[in-house]
Structures are given as C-alpha cells and as structure tokens.
Design a protein that fits this description.
The chain is an alpha/beta fold. Helices cover 47% and strands 15% of the residues. It is built from six helices and five strands; from the N terminus they run E-H-E-H-E-H-E-H-E-H-H. It binds D-ribose (RB5).
Length: 146
C-alpha cells in the first residue's frame, strides 16, 4: 500500500504524527505538505492528493485540516474518491469495512494526537468486507459515473 499525506496550516502537527505512524508501520508514503504556518487553502492540497489516489498512483490518502471537514468536502469532489471524516475508532473500522473509503480526513483542532494515531492505524489496517457493502458502494460509483 502507498499513502499520500497532505494538510493545510491547521493540520501540520497532526500530519507529523501521521508521518511517524506511517514510518512505524513501514508504509511507503509521500507527504505533499503544506509544512507551513502561514494560512493556505485546504483544496490546494486536498484535491491534488485525492487526484493522485483516483489516478491509481497511490492507494490511499490521509488529509488533515483544522476540522477535517474542508478536506473531506474537497476530496469527495474527485471522481473515485470515498473520503471519510473520522474522529472515533468505531467509524475508522466501519468506514473501511462498509464504505471501502480510500481517503481518511481528520481535524487537528478536534482530535488529540494519540487518538488520531490509533484512528489512522485502524483505518490503514482494516479490510473492506465486500458483499452487500460492495453493492452499496457500487451504487455510489454508478451515480458518480452518470
Ligand atoms: C483553516 O482555518 C480551517 O478553516 C481549515 O483548516 C479547515 O478546518 C476547513 O475545513
């Protein structure tokens, strides 16, 4: 699995935690920033990262902003992206098992570093269940491709 990581200025500290987790798990990744404290716009980082998942260059993306909401809205505009805004462990597992989410978004102003790390670990290591869930995800994809 290859992961692309991006954040705006509101997510740089949490993004560093995720870098350390990806290194611990030995998951190859690219961190496209912003690595900045100056104010930037989350779509400028979230959309290119999501596009690189949709193109197949990366399997998954983890996107961080202040709330995780902007990144999730932006990423979900890209065809083929199923971005999940997650701040609890139950949803981290469920969104992989049921939604086959390929993008995880979190908010640095919402969740602490320790929980965010465990959310990302769970999300990265949980498999899609397929079956009836594949049918449901397929309906979303069909709508998207109309
Ligand atoms: C930046 O202030 C903030 O709006 C952004 O990080 C994010 O929370 C947007 O959804």
């Amino acid at each position: 699995m290859k992961v692309i990581l991006a954040s705006d200025h509101g997510g740089i500290h949490l993004a560093k935690e995720i870098v350390s987790l990806l290194e611990e798990l030995a998951i190859p990744y690219e961190d496209i920033g912003c690595h900045c404290t100056d104010s930037v716009d989350y779509p400028d980082y979230g959309i290119p990262a999501a596009e690189r998942v949709a193109s197949g260059e990366f399997d998954r993306a983890i996107l961080i902003c202040g709330t995780g909401i902007g990144m999730s809205i932006a990423a979900n505009k890209v065809n083929g992206i199923r971005a999940a805004l997650v701040h609890d462990l139950f949803s981290a597992k469920a969104t992989r098992e049921h939604n086959n989410s390929n993008v995880l978004t979190m908010g640095e102003r919402v969740v602490g570093a320790g929980l965010a790390r465990e959310i990302a670990r769970t999300w990265l290591t949980t498999e899609f269940q397929g079956g009836r869930h594949a049918n449901r995800v397929g309906k979303v994809t069909s709508y998207e491709n109309q």
